[in-house]
Amino acid sequence: MRGNLFLFLLSILSTGHAAVWTCLPAEELFNNIDRIEHKNIHLPATGSIKLGPALLPVASLEETSIYQIAADRPGNLYLTAGTALYRKPRGSNRLQKIYQDEANELLALAVLPDGTIFFGTTPDGKIYRTAPGGTPQPIALTGATYISSLLPAPDRTLICATGAGGELLRLHPDGRQQTIFTAPQAHLTALCWLQPGSELLVGTAPEGIVYRLTFSTPDARPRITVFYDTPLEEVRTIVADGRDRIYIAGNSNPESGGQDGQNRPAVFALDRAGILTWQWSCPDSVIYNLYLDDSQRLFVLTGNRGIIYALDSAARPAILARVEESGITGITQSGRNVFFGTASPARLYSIITAAHADSGSLTSLPFDCGNPAQFGQLQIRGSIPAGTELVIATRSGNSATPDSTWSNWQPLNRLPGKVASPPARFIQWRASFTTRFPDRTPELERVDLFYRPVNRAPVINRLEISQVAEVDARRGNPQFRRQISWDATDPDTDSLVFALFIRAEKENNYQPLDTSLTETRYELDTRTIPDGWYYLRLVASDRIDRPFATALTAERISAPFVIDNTPPRITNLNISSRRVIWQVIDELSPIASCRIAINAGTWLPLEPDDGIYDEATETFTYQIPAGVEVKTVAIWASDALGNTATAQKATPAR
Question: N or C: which end of the chain has fewer CB within 10 A?
Answer without folding.
Answer: C
